[in-house]
Fold:
Amino acid sequence: MLLFMKTKLNPPARLLAGLVMLLTLGAGQQPVQNAAAPLANPLGYGIGDAVANFRLKNVDGRTVSLADFKDGKGAIIVFTCNHCPFSRAYEDRVIALNQRFMSQGFPVIGINPNDPAAYEEDSFENMKVRAREKGYSFPYLADETQEVARAFGATRTPYVVVLKREGDKFTVQYMGTIDDNSQDAGSVTHRYVEDAVNNLLAGKPVGLNTTKSVGCAIKWKTV
Structure:
């Protein structure tokens, strides 16, 4: 609440007082950042949405589609890349997710959505090198048109979407980050992706199905 004294002000003083009042009122109207704000791109898929099939080139030269995994129980889609330090920090954890859940019907599918013109390190040739060096046992696909990333509402790397197969469809069950510590795997207390997949395997609801993705902004192509 603003209190004003009944004093006579000269024109410059009145102008200054008016400016102070406007700035004060304006500051009170600024939007407050809220933890309940949307966590995913509203133009992308939401929880429960069926995902359209996609076909992308893998580092081994083959074309891989989501439909190739129709005999499984679902999939763990990871939008990632070579250059991003957050993606690198999570790389071993992504490999571990595939090792743990692939045999249970939830394989990892890695997708690089970045424009290689922005970072040469994210080129297809360098993707092949990285996959070979780290011994990826999952597909590492190039989203050259960036249409898949846009469809999923991905804005950062890494960004994870857990899919559940329901008949001939895959539906979104979880979207967001892998766990609650991007810097230190040993200090993780909440493993969001693991919990989501474990719940699905047990026939339970996912529970927490959206978290905020932490990482590098996707490098979009310019027209």
